[in-house]
Amino acid sequence: MTVGRLVLVLARTAAALLAAGSLWLTLWRGLDEPAVALAFGVLVAVGELSRWSDSDERESTPLGAAGALSYALLGQNAGHPTHHGVQQVVTVVLAACLAGCVPHVARGRGPTADHLTRRLLTVGFATVCFQPLYAQGRLRDWSGPAYALLLVALLVLTTLCDAVLAAALAHSRTRWPFGPLLRDELRARVGIGSAVCATGAVMSLAVAVVGLWALPVFSLPLLLTQLSYRRYAAVRTTYRQTIASLARATEIAGYTPAGHARRVAALSCAVGRELGLAEPELTVLEYAALMHDIGQLSLIDPVPAGATAALPTEEQRRIALLGGAVVRQTGVNAEVAVVVERQSDPYREQPVSARIVRAVNAYEEMAREETGPGGALRALERLRLGCARDYQPEVVESLARVLHQRGGAMSVAPVV
What we know:
Helix content: over 70%
Number of helices: 16
Distance between the termini: 31 Å
Shape: elongated
Order of helices and strands: HHHEEHHHHHHHHHHHHH
Strand order of the largest sheet: 1-2
Strand content: under 5%
Low-confidence stretches: 408-416
Radius of gyration: 26 Å
Structural class: mainly alpha
Mean pLDDT: 82
Largest sheet: 2 strands, antiparallel
């Protein structure tokens, strides 16, 4: 069993044990303050029901996360101490998440198992940090700004733990490098994660003063924010589809083989992740890979099979510059145009994204030319022979590792 698979099994096992133990203790001891439990349970369930399915978002249920964390850090209700413990918080959150996930499971949307694992372990961590101290009376002397700062500090610590857990689960599921995944998770927490922490702390403090009526009042801004994020995600998806459709112009016109741009984009993103590129860099890489051949539309006679790697350097440069000019006219990020324009430059003068697209595009063209058993391996060896000027050795070796993982080619001796 690989390390990534072991992490996934351990995380899910810990979440399952936490859920089973909490449920058993709650059934044995009974439910304290059912009205409070029901109110927070409904809030978390509503947040789960409104979950978006865009996998690029790091926190797809901000309202559900804020509601669960505020219940975990709830000490009083309208000035009266609460008595729910760790087991009740986990049980209520589990029941609410399961109820809210039913429609998503029925539609086959989203990684529900990993989502529940993260939610239970994150809420369990926050509850274990707060509820025992509150029940033992160690927080009685904490009031006013000091108490609020304590809640914020616990929420920040919980958010950091959730980021580590999310990166570990993603690493175990995809085998992408853990470091870049964690960096992207932490960067994402600056946005919606900050809103979740702030809303969770405010709701906990507000309920302690005015009671459960504070929940709908203080959850409304985050719900509106979540709806805005969903619209933004829809716009971004449409934007990506538009770029993909524009990239197909060369295929429709007969300049490149069908599916070439999509294959280059998918493989380039895999290599970029393997090399540790951040999410914004991967977005630029994907768009540039989709549109890297758009300059061929300026040719009177199409290149056979769209294989520009075999053309003279000056012709490659002319096509690349024309492609960059077209990209600039589309309104796409200028960095995408730069990557397209620099395709024919020596790799030492190229940005990393351009090096990746150039190597992957050349491999795709060479692999199409090579037939018979071992064709992919021969194409990879041809790439390695061109590492003196055209292709960066690190990119080629990363491509070899990705292909080996996918079963597309076997890696041989590394480039020296």
